[in-house]
Each structure stands twice: as structure tokens, then as C-alpha cells.
Amino acid sequence: MPRVSQDQLAARRHEILAAARDCFARFGYEGATVRRLEDATGLSRGAIFHHFRDKESLFLAVAEDDAANMVETVARNGLVQVMRDLLAKAGEAKAGGDTAGWLGTQLEVSRRLRTDPQFAKRWAERSAAIADATRERLQRQREAGVLRDDVPVEVLTQFLELAYDGLVLHLATGRPPGELSRVLDVVEEAVRRG
């Protein structure tokens, strides 16, 4: 029996996550049945659940993957850049690309946070990592003299999180982007030193 390398296992896991993200986005958590996950991934349930304990673990892995990417972007370029990237993805989706998977995952995470206490408990750590990365980035900007100093970093963090949540909701409900790029300019200007 041939051995599977760690690279092959990682690649398969990545493929499963990408297909599952689309499935959860299209059908929601409950509607993403194991059969639909099999169809989306092109794999048997045994192959899927070799990598993930169960559907709950698969969904959490999708959401964690998205959160990890977001933390990296926030640490490098800030939460406003995450919003700009999301807006660009929304434009690509209109042109035939796909951002629905990511947005769908974000909305499903929000829904499950309200309705599933166990999920909320597991998710708290991921949410804290995003907030921590945002605070750390803002603190570095304040120390560099770029960030306004008349508002506490914690308040600016919450302001940016609210802007992000509003952008996700706006795009996820299918409303046109309109002048959102300029809105993000205003958000960015609001936290910078005048």
C-alpha cells in the first residue's frame, strides 16, 4: 500500500475545506448534508471524515481557516485592508468569481454564535485572535504617530469591528457595493491622525 505524504494530506485537506466552504455557503450548516458534502468534494464520507471528525469539526475548520487568514491580513495591513479585500472579492464575484463561500461562512458563524452555545464557546478563541490582532496593529500605528490619540485603542477596535460587520451584512444580503470603496476611505480616515 503506497504511503501518502504530509504534503498530499495537506493538499487534500485544503481541497475538502474549499469545497465544504462553498457547500456551507450555498446550503447553510443544516442544509449541507453529508451527501451534499460528498457531492461538493467528490469524495466519500469516509475520505472526508478521515480528515475531520464530523460535520461540526469540518465547519469549524472552514471558519477557523478564514479567521486565520483574516488575522494574518490584520497583522500585516489592518482590518480596513480586510474590508477592502472583501469588497474586491465581491466585485470579482459579480464578474464570475466566488466570494459567496466566504460570506456564507461568516453569516453561518454569526447565526451559530446566536443559536449554539457550544459553538460560541469554541469560537470565542478565534474571535479574540482577530480582535487582538486589530488592537496590536492599532497600537503599533499609534506608537508610529499615524493613529489618532484622542480615542482609546479599544474604542477604535470596536469601531472597525462594527464597520467590518456592517460590510459583511451589506454584501451578504446582495446589496450593490455602490460607493463602499469611498466609505472605507472614510473609515480609514476616521482612525488616522488628522
Describe the structure.
The protein has 194 residues and is mainly alpha-helical. It is built from 9 helices and no strands. It has helices at residues 6-31, 34-41, 45-51, 55-77, 79-94, 100-115, 117-143, 153-172, 180-191. The longest helix is centred in the last third of the chain and has 27 residues, at 117-143. It is elongated.
Which key features would you list for this structure?
mainly alpha, 194 residues, single chain, 9 helices
Layout of helices and strands:
Elements: H1 6-31, H2 34-41, H3 45-51, H4 55-77, H5 79-94, H6 100-115, H7 117-143, H8 153-172, H9 180-191
Helix pairs in contact: 1-2, 1-4, 1-6, 4-5, 4-6, 4-7, 5-8, 5-9, 6-7, 6-8, 7-8
Q: Report the structural category.
A: mainly alpha
Helix content: over 70%
Percent of residues in beta strands? under 5%
Radius of gyration: 19 Å
The major pleated sheet works out as: none
Task: Say how many strands there are.
Answer: 0
Distance between the termini: 66 Å
Q: What order do the helices and strands follow?
A: HHHHHHHHH
Shape: elongated
